[in-house]
Amino acid sequence: MIGYVTLGTNDLPRAAAFYDALAGEMGTPRMMEFETFIAWGTENGPAGIAVTKPYDGQAATVGNGVMVALEAKDKDQVHRLYDIALAHGGTCEGPPGPRGDGFYAGYFRDPDGNKLNAFVMGEAAA
């Protein structure tokens, strides 16, 4: 099981504003914060997400084919998360909509270019 996912950033304050907005919609608080690292999650909760300036001091870069999926409560929250992402410097990678039988998602990149999606599956995707 995944405990948390960490994404690189070259601008921690910008990344913090982006992820604070998404986490706020999902009801997930910051749980750790250091000079170069911020994490959102809940103790003993589902997997969290973090952003960090790379430990080696080099520029953060995105992984081709890497994506983090944020599980939404319903299709309306998929739309809200997608809209929040774009309003906070994210870019569209595919607007919310059905993506196959029982899967509904919206795709976007954060301001550093990391790819994410918000999704629901099963009855919530109907």
UniProtKB/TrEMBL annotation:
Q: Which SUPFAM superfamilies match?
A: Glyoxalase/Bleomycin resistance protein/Dihydroxybiphenyl dioxygenase
Task: Look up the domain of life of the source.
Answer: Bacteria
Signal peptide start and end residues: none
Q: Which residues form the VOC domain?
A: 1-121
List, alphabetically, the InterPro entries matched. Answer: Glyas_Bleomycin-R_OHBP_Dase, Glyas_Fos-R_dOase_dom, VOC_core
- Report what the protein is called: VOC family protein
